[in-house]
Amino acid sequence: MGKTFSEKLLGLKAGQKVSAGDVVTVSPDYILSHDNSAAIIKEFEKLGVEKVFSPGKLVIILDHVVPASSEKYAQNHKTIRKFVAEQKITNFFDIHHGICHQVLMENGFATPRKLILGADSHTVSYGALGAFSAGIGRSEVAVLWATDEIWLRVPETLKVQIEGKLPRGVYAKDIILKIIGEEGADCANYKAVEFSGDAAKNMSIASRIVLCNMAAEMGAKNAYFAQDDATISWLKNRAKDEFELICSDEGAKYEMVLHYDISSLEPQVAFPHTVDNVKPVSQAKGIKFHQAVIGTCTNGRLEDLVVAAQILKGKKVHPKLRVLVIPASRAEYLLALKEGVLETLVEAGCVVLNPGCGPCLGAHQGVIAPGEVALSTANRNFQGRMGSRDSFIYLASPATVAASAIEGQITDPREYL
Amino acid sequence: MKKGKVWKYGDNVNTDVIFPGKYTYSILDPKEMAVHALEDLDPEFSQKAMPGDIIVAGKNFGCGSSREQAATCLRYAGIQAVIAKSFARIFFRNAINQGLPVIQSEEIVESVEKGEEIAIDFSKGQIKTQKGILSFSPLPESVSGILEAGGLIPYTKAKLEKKRARAK
Fold it and tell me: How many other CB atoms are found less than 10 A from the CB of residue B50?
């Protein structure tokens, strides 16, 4: 019988044939951590091990609170830099590179057949390039640093077949919000999600990353797209080493197959306080908000910023709004800069922040006050996530956020395209 | 068998309401972490929860961020165990790795009430409630070893020490 992508990849790493449900002990190819490395270092030190087992596997990227916003954060960063020097960690990216997931992919760590584990739930993103990637906790990362071993359960696979052509003004973010809204926040708990179908095949890599990134909000362990010419050409000049493709076999066993036709999909909006509380934009129209966020690891790539700029070109953001733009990485920032995209956004009245997580997790750079409402392109709208527990977050595509930024209330972007 | 009071919550209790992101890199002290446990879900919790209390919740408990403090802060608050209809994957691992027992059972969640005193017998896989004794499946041995050691770090430390001793 055929095997799924996840069965094949974990089987390769375990050196044996495996099926969904099996528990395997494996060594990842790369281990990601970010500002939380400071806390991981503390746990690592408790283990009584002096040297990291395999320093070349560690990828440490500072992105959560960059530059440091307080003495405590500054001390965390300092602790990490010291550890990096002592342990001779070569894959270290200081505060100027951008959000860890984007930076890891841009630097070619994530290629087909790689197993990447990270101390961050959105590590699932790299399945867009054919890696098996999953989030784990801090203790597990500390133990991986010391022993290079971890147990993983081979996940069952939920296949999402997406067909049809995206209508004007509707984007990858709308597709994934629609799926999460229909299926619920735990529909893929413990499972792998395989995105397939014509619409999936026609997506850019940036759009595939949006879907894989938000598979975390379905509870997924990992997410995956079949690699094709688009993957190969994206990885050209980026991949750290040569790679072979790895896709699910014909006849692989899926736990469930879901079908979506997106030909008549409307822009979607997730209402507070859960990502699966999704309604079409027609039911959100007119909702007022105080702060807009365009960016994050979900929607901070060039294609997202270009759409926002198309809508905001020659317009002004509503005078009562704060509109924050956060490119996902320095590389995306530079592209947007060279193409004049950022110029358009700044002229419209947006505040461009340095690449990083920004206010997404409520730590700095635009946290919101009690009673305030944010409209964001991020992946989470949990209560209190962006600041006060008495604030509210709506999630939407960059186009919806940009159009709404002009009006000062949630707006259908198709009116501006 | 230790008795504990039940704190009952619904589905999809996420890690942001268990331990807000704004504290994840700034609060490291156990006592202070306990003070902020469940802050954005139930501000009463940290004031009134007693060591040995038990959290009972619906499906997908601990969804969202991978932050391990969501499990750590509950342990520091003295929570004896979390019983839920289901757990989000990363939280499940984090809880065990922090030595916080987790029990998955729809039946138990449906039958216990908020504020009720219940007692858990982990070795027998039984819970004594007002309505009688209910059973749950114990965790597999490989995982229960981590719990018994008090978490993944002490578990691994002991394993590495044994390995070094054998090598000598």
Answer: 11
Split at pLDDT 50, 70, 90, the class of A3 is: very high
**Could you tell me which chain A residue has the CA closest to the CA of B29?**
A39
Nearest to A332 by CA among A308, A359, A355: A355
Look at residue B1 in the predicted model and tell me its pLDDT.
74
Who contacts A410 (Cβ-Cβ below 8 Å, separation ≥6)?
A269, A281, A284, A285, A286, A287, A289, A375, A394, A396, A400, A404
Q: Is the pLDDT of residue A192 over 80?
A: yes
Residue B167's pLDDT is what?
87
Q: How far apart are CA A191 and CA A97, in angstroms?
A: 31
- B167 touching A (Cβ < 8 Å): no
User: In whole angstroms, what is the distance from residue B97 CA to residue B20 CA?
Assistant: 20
Residues of A in contact with B14 (CB under 8 A): 274, 380, 382
Cβ-defined contact of A43 to B160 (cutoff 8 Å): no
Angle at the Cα of B129 (from B125 to B130), degrees rounded to 5?
Answer: 160
Residue B125 lies in a domain: yes
**Residue A167's pLDDT band (boundaries 50, 70, 90)?**
very high
CA distance B93 to chain A (A): 7
Q: Produce one character per residue of A291-313: b if its CB has 16 or more CB atoms within 10 Å, e if not.
A: bbbbbbbbbbbbbbbebbbbbbb
Report pLDDT digits (tens) over B102-119. 999 999 999 999 999 999
Chain A / chain B CB contacts < 8 angstroms:
129
Range of the domain at B101: 2-139
Domain ranges for chain A: 5-259, 268-416
| Structural fold of domain A268-416 | Aconitase; domain 3 (3.30.499)
Question: Residue B144: which pLDDT band, with cuts at 50, 70 and 90?
Answer: confident
Residue range A33-75, pLDDT digits in tens: 999 999 999 999 999 999 999 999 999 999 999 999 999 999 9
pLDDT digits (tens, 9 = 90+) for A258-278: 999 999 999 999 999 999 999
Partner residue facing B66 (CB), from A23, A43, A121: A121
Q: Let me know if residue B122 belongs to a domain.
A: yes
**Which chain A positions have a beta carbon within 8 Å of B60's beta carbon?**
185-186, 189, 219
State the CATH class of domain A5-259: alpha beta
